[in-house]
Amino acid sequence: MQFNEYYNGRTGLTVGIKEILFSEQTPYQKVEVFKTDTWGNMLTIDGMVMLSEMDEFVYHEMIVHVGMFSHPAPRRVLIIGGGDGGTAREVLRHPSVEHVDMVEIDEAVVRAARQFFPEVGDFENPKLHVRYEDGIRFLENVTDPYDVIIIDGSDPVGPAVELFSERFYKNCYKALTPSGVITAQTESPWVASYHPDIKNLFQVLDATFEVSEMYLAYIPLYPAGMWSFALASKGIRPHDPEVLQRVEQGTTKMASTLQYYNSEIHRAAFALPGFVRDIIR
Amino acid sequence: MQFNEYYNGRTGLTVGIKEILFSEQTPYQKVEVFKTDTWGNMLTIDGMVMLSEMDEFVYHEMIVHVGMFSHPAPRRVLIIGGGDGGTAREVLRHPSVEHVDMVEIDEAVVRAARQFFPEVGDFENPKLHVRYEDGIRFLENVTDPYDVIIIDGSDPVGPAVELFSERFYKNCYKALTPSGVITAQTESPWVASYHPDIKNLFQVLDATFEVSEMYLAYIPLYPAGMWSFALASKGIRPHDPEVLQRVEQGTTKMASTLQYYNSEIHRAAFALPGFVRDIIR
After folding, report:
1. Residues B235, B96 share a domain
2. Using the beta-carbon criterion (under 8 Å), do B10 and A37 form an inter-chain contact?
3. Residues of chain B contacting residue A58, judged by C-beta atoms under 8 Å apart
């Protein structure tokens, strides 16, 4: 049996599947877990790969550490989405963290992750507070601001479509402390049909935040193997000397758990090929 | 109709095909050209994608410019393989170049490229000398050395297997001028079955050259979307201040033709994720 995900006409990914472990049409989306032949278990939402056990480290290290190390000492962190638990796991590796709210709209994602991806989440950690709510509504009512907000939603279709809107990012800005930083996943630059969404999103970030930049990572099971992320802040820049010093020290301490992110990657991820620059400029 | 290339069990790429334009079993390999639904024409060798019209700029800019700008003024350039012509085209954009030898073992590749990829090659350029010979033997008899040698061969199977050997790289070293630089394609770090070849190759380069480094690029139709390259030299380092200055000036002059490579990419490409460092260290 083969799983197929097409991203450009009939071009895409094909993955050998041994068994369907979980399949549920929730009120929000279709959540499935497959046992693959070489990637361990793999989670998909509406037919799009979210993660496999073998490659999830790239996405989770890159959506978390680039922003977390940019902030001087993040105590309170908000994750919008992130139901598989991998983003919270990486956040919780930072010793300054005291409180993490993870707002996932769909409890089925967490249920599937806890059963079939036991190494991905750190759900028993007492600092982690999982809420099954609409993250977009949650953000409108934040009273105690966050140091870092991570937008770990799915693609800009279905319940995640508002995660690409101006209103959503204005609420993020309000919910951030003065030295606050956000990171978000922002699709594959190789997928032409997402270029308008990517362009609009970075225009919104430019208009809303003092600093906004795109960065990239190699994710083998995502469309074309290239994925983009946004970092935005009220002033901190990811290349500030203090940030680079924190990254150097922090990655040394964290070295035993890091498989992708390191201090060279922190800088290099912000270098954009010409065709990617052209999408957002 | 779908073209499939598997790289990890039954995981791989699937591409929608409209028509088979060329298919020939040569004395060396099976050469095919497909008309795809969204990537233009696509060349494969023994079932492995070599390039499409839409994505070839990444591979060709990255295998050429990183090394060519590292050399102060490359006049004589040797390309081993490179039958589609894209590597020679990018080499010939450098104004210092006077003479390019392209040594391609299989004339069928050049024939297919001239017919079905007219934008890729620059075969009428009087500086370009195409020889249909075994590049490995050719290298053993070089009397007039080269400033830059580019190893643009296929994967380490079939006629390209010796392109990963110590003897081959010792001959490269001998065929280089004192400020000489080589670049080579060195497979996808996401493909576990190639790790021994990649590791051996970098050990050979370390033992043979004064400088050797791996760099990376995002290539959507190659396995997992991540491709590695080697740069090796008799002393020049790709991060030397003079090199970075040449890159800055050269990419500005060449800006209208560059879709991937730029001065930030030149530096960033050498940053390796942890799991990639682990393959070669």
Report:
1. yes
2. yes
3. 273
- Answer whether residue A253 shows pLDDT above 80: yes
CATH number of A13's domain: 2.30.140.10
Give the residue on A whose Cα is nearest the Cα of B190.
A220
A-to-B residue pairs, Cβ atoms closer than 8 angstroms = 139
Please tell me the predicted confidence (pLDDT) of residue A158.
63
Our measurement of the distance from residue A231's CA atom to the centroid of its chain's CA atoms, rounded to an integer in Å, reads: 11
Over residues A152-167, mean pLDDT = 76
Q: What is the CATH number of the domain that holds B131?
A: 3.40.50.150
CB contact under 8 A, A271 and B264: yes
Q: For this structure, is B152 an active site residue?
A: yes
The pTM is what?
0.97
What are the pLDDT digits (tens) for B99-115? 999 999 999 999 999 99
Task: Give A-chain residues touching B36 at CB under 8 angstroms.
Answer: 9, 11
Which of A6, A220, A260 faces B225 most closely, judged by CB atoms?
A220
Catalytic residue among B84, B101, B106, B152: B152
Closest by Cβ to B274, choosing from A36, A218, A258: A258
Q: Mean pLDDT over all residues of chain A?
A: 96
Indicate whether A39 and A167 sit together in one domain: no
Considering the domain architecture, whether residues B46 and B63 belong to the same structural domain is answered as: no
| β-pairing verdict for B30-36 and A11-25 | unpaired
Counting the structural domains of chain A, the total is 2
8 Å CB contact of B11 and A10? no
Q: Are residues A20 and A66 in the same domain?
A: no
Query: Does the distance separating the beta carbons of A273 and B262 come in below 8 Å?
Result: yes
Q: Which of A1, A5, A218 to mutate to test the interface with B (most CBs of B within 10 A)?
A: A218
Residue B11 to residue A37, Cβ atoms within 8 A: yes
Residues on chain B touching A260 (C-beta within 8 angstroms): 273-275
Per-residue pLDDT reduced to its tens digit, B9-35: 999 999 999 999 999 999 999 999 999
